[in-house]
Every structure is written in structure tokens, then in C-alpha cells.
Amino acid sequence: MNYLDDVRSAARAYLLREADDARPEWRGVFTMNGTEGPTGIAPVCPDPEHEAGDGDLYTCCPELAIEVESAEFAEYLVALLNADREGGAR
Ligand SMILES: [Zn+2]
């Protein structure tokens, strides 16, 4: 396996432990008050009552939320992680 496969596998093992999903779909989330756009990333909430476009975090949401301090960087990470969801070895 190459380096990307190795780190992807390790990250998926971590995500399986922390978010109960090795390949979650990601979304931008509001992790700080007063920002215009979401500056964090988190798995898409599986609760059917949680609207897909709602970037706030509630008690229904998976625990894992990562603050990245930039709406542009958060959007980029969400795009990268979602593009990579099916990538690499199983
Ligand atoms: Zn939720």
C-alpha cells in the first residue's frame, strides 16, 4: 500500500471508533459563535429531523466535530473528504 492508503486506513479505524462510521459523509458546521460561514467539519447528522442544510450542532449530531478556523478551509476539507470516501483499499 502507498502512504495515502496507509493513513486513510488508520483514519478510518479512528472514525469507526469515534463516529461509528469509517466513511462518514462530511459537512461544514458552525463550531464558533459569530462566524459568517461554518468554520468546522463534522459527519452529516443521521437524524431525520436534522435538515441537511442546517450547519448547527445539536445533541442529535455525531460527537466528532473538528474546528478548522476558516470557512474556506472547512469547505475544502469537506470536499476532499467526501471525494475520498470511496477511495483506497477496503
Ligand atoms: Zn443533528
Please tell me the overall pLDDT. Answer: 93
Percent range for β-strand residues? 5-15%
- Helix segment tally: 2
Task: Provide the list of bound ligands, each named once.
Answer: zinc ion
Record field, number of beta strands: 3
Order of helices and strands: HEEEH
Query: Strand arrangement, largest sheet?
Result: 1-2-3
Task: Work out the count of structural domains.
Answer: 1
Q: Helical residue percent?
A: 25-40%
Distance between the termini: 12 Å
Low-confidence stretches: none
Question: How many strands, what sense, and barrel or not for the largest sheet?
Answer: 3 strands, antiparallel
Radius of gyration: 13 Å
- The secondary structure category is alpha+beta
Shape: globular
Characterization of this structure:
The protein is of the alpha+beta class and 90 residues long. The protein has one domain. It has helices spanning 3-19, 71-83, and strands spanning 26-29, 40-43, 66-67. It is globular and about 45 Å long. The N and C termini lie close together (12 Å). The model has no long low-confidence stretch (mean pLDDT 93). The structure holds zinc ion. Zinc ion binds next to loops.
